[in-house]
Here is the input.
Amino acid sequence: MSLKISQNVNLAEYTSWLVGGNADHFCLPETLEDLKEAITFAKANNFAITILGGGTNVLVSDEGIAGLTICLRRLSKIATFEKDGKLHIEALTGTAKSELLKTFLKQKLAPALFLAGLPGDVGGGVVMNAGVAEAFVPREFMDFVDWIEVMTLDLEIIRLQKNQLNIKYRHTDGWQPHIIVNVGMSWPLEIDTTILDRVREANKIRLTKQPLDMPSCGSVFKNPEGHKAAQLIDSTGLKGYRVGDAQVSLKHANFIVNLDKATAKNISDVIAHVQKTVEKEKGVKLTTEVVRLGRWI
Here is the structure.
């Protein structure tokens, strides 16, 4: 086997919160052939498979993850071509959204503004249907996705068109239980000469409104219909609430930051307290964008 499988690898450095325990077994495939080797290894040893992408929007248990954790961040490649008045992009799942931003920015196209400041990778963008609060066009990741390719546990590659997927607010279904490996996107070649200045301005605004200098997962809670999660949390006086080194950001109430040595349990406890308080005082249930991975009681 050419793919390196490691044991007892701490996952904190592979998550944007910088928390989490060890993966019993861990690998970083760089090609689709590597990914096939990883799946074959897991099946041969009867290991459960956990997929870890860019490490944003996930909370890895302090108790770690059993089986084989496959981190896709090195499965990164981007290709472009122009056809029928559109820019077409194909990107492997681990390609950073920041690389996608550079591609759209080079062509002076609108998705660059949407992508400015969005963390994570392309595969995560599909899974979470990543979006922004601003009234941009596009406003959600799936707005410019045409198709995805998945690898089945039988090592087949299947292409799913956009209309075969169930696209919702902050979530995409219809590709499970497979592994997203490649994403096809497109956007009309309608040049916006102001886009670079607008991206710079958007980044400046985000720096003033979001704690981008501290470990976090981005927005923790989905916006309930008719409400904004940050406003609900702020109105209950929870900014600054902390358990251990996990704190509701003083800058943006829908961010939970790791002040230094937070644990996943600390973060989980803050999430639970925020949900309980907002429901009690405002009568609104908050649900998270965060996916929990590993051994949770």
User: Anything to note?
Assistant: Residues 128 and 171 are 4 Å apart (CA to CA).
